[in-house]
Amino acid sequence: MKKIPALLSLFFVFSFSFFSEDFFSVNRQKRVSPDSKVALDFTKMNYNMASGVIFDMMIAPQKYKNKTMKIHGQFYTEVHNDKRIFAILIWDLTGCCPTGMTIVPLSSMKYPADFPKQDEYVTVTGTLEIFEIDGEEALCLVAENWSR
Description:
This protein has one helix and nine strands; from the N terminus they run ββββαβββββ. The chain is mostly beta strands.
């Protein structure tokens, strides 16, 4: 498990992590190719199913550790206390209640050049990893492949 000093904040039904650098990244080679078998394909789930699975991920992160995940949604980023956070949001049909996943980019990505524009819809594939944040386990998607 990786240790990351951070504040933990809830944003809708998932957590964003505020890291001690401009933004947190993982320094490693890609493990997931665009044709890799995906264990959790959120692109094939409706909002209700995606919300249920993400809720289960929050309660039992060990069950999802090292699984591959594919998610399509709205790219979101913001700066909070001088720390940049990233996420993919999936909206319900009314547009009121998003769910989503905190994204941790590979260290080879540079912000903003290598990232989607705010609110752009993207598909992200990667590996779910557990990070320790303020003594709590948080499941994040290490984004290895992005497509617009």
